[in-house]
Amino acid sequence: MVVPKKSLGQNFLRDENVARNIVQTIHPGRRDAVLEIGPGTGVLTAYLIGEAGHYIGVELDRRSLELLRARFPSATFIYGDILAVRLRDLRIPENLRLRVVGNIPYYITSEILFWILDQRQWLVDATLMMQWEVARRLTARPRTKDYGILSVVLQMYMTPEIRFKVSPNSFHPKPSVESAVVHLEKRNAVPAHSEDLFRSIVRGTFGKRRKTLLNSLRSMGYEEDVLRSLRFDLGRRPEELSGEEFLELSSELSRHVPLTT
Ligand code: SAH
Predict the structure, then answer these.
(1) 112 to each of 12, 16, 71, 106, 108, how far by Cα in Å?
(2) Are 100 and 37 in contact (CB under 8 A)?
(3) Residue 9 alpha carbon to ligand 1 centre in Å
(4) pTM assigned to the model
(5) What is the pLDDT of residues 186-207, one digit of tens each?
(6) CB of 128 sitting under 6 A from ligand 1
């Protein structure tokens, strides 16, 4: 038995049905390599190893690792922080598709989501247990209160879908919030653009959610007359814009403003 550590965000799944539902939602096959974030006590691990062609677990708790290695001697477990893992360095056999899975530690949910975005070149999808509230933000549409930086940036590169809701009772210890299993499928055919600029415009304008785009862009240091010359209605507010519109806005800006960064 591993006594849960709060500092590692440990809420172990204790409902086998939820574990089975997660694996069903992923439906891993022999041609899939599965990377599990924080296998912990191995509830999901057992099902994943049975079905995937290749399994790698990344865990930051040495006590769990010892038990996992003893229980699943043929699987690969890496000790470390998932955020420090570079997927390209894992040397996944080329004929396998990399799929990321995990009942993740909630103290770093956003970091893990951005880690996935930054490395999406190396994976096909991700299926994650996360806080219900974050799941709502990920899937939010324009003009809703949940719509924000995470919604716009994530939806530009991935298609998120809430698969099912999970009650706090399914975990030990019980988290204080409801959870959801979210599937993120990588989007292909995203138009070429400067990702840094796109993210900085989304962050900069949502930072002052109630301000017009014009006001926020001005406080970001863009010249007034440049802004006035854009073919984009800057009297709007960030929460009214779709991801595609943010993309349009950032391409307009990159045409008129020499890149300084
Ligand atoms: N998948 C298990 C455990 C979920 S709890 C289950 O469903 O029961 C989250 C797990 O992530 C814990 O095992 C914790 O030790 C691990 N963890 C916490 N921070 C981590 C990090 N930065 N990198 C990798 N694993 C981490």
Answers:
(1) 18, 24, 27, 9, 6
(2) yes
(3) 7
(4) 0.95
(5) 999 899 999 999 999 999 999 9
(6) no
Q: Ligand 1: does its nearest atom lie under 6 Å from the Cβ of 85?
A: no
Amino acid at 22: I
What is the rounded CA–CA span in Å between residue 229 and residue 160? 35
- Say yes or no: CB of residue 41 within 6 Å of ligand 1: yes
How far apart, in whole angstroms, are the C-alpha atoms of residue 218 and residue 240?
19
Query: 216: Cβ below 6 Å to ligand 1?
Result: no
Which residue's CA is the closest to the ligand 1 atom numbered 16?
A: 38
Q: Are 36 and 56 in contact (CB under 8 A)?
A: yes
The DSSP line for 56-122 is: EEEES-HHHHHHHHHH-TTSEEEES-GGG--GGGG---TTSEEEEEEE--GGGHHHHHHHHHHTGGG
The residue type at 201: I
DSSP H or E run through 32 = strand 32-37
Q: Which residue has the tokens 């930051």?
A: 60
* Pairwise CA distance, residues 205 & 210, whole Å: 9
- Residue 259 in this model has a pLDDT that exceeds 70: no
Q: Check whether the bond before 142 is cis (ω within 30° of 0).
A: no
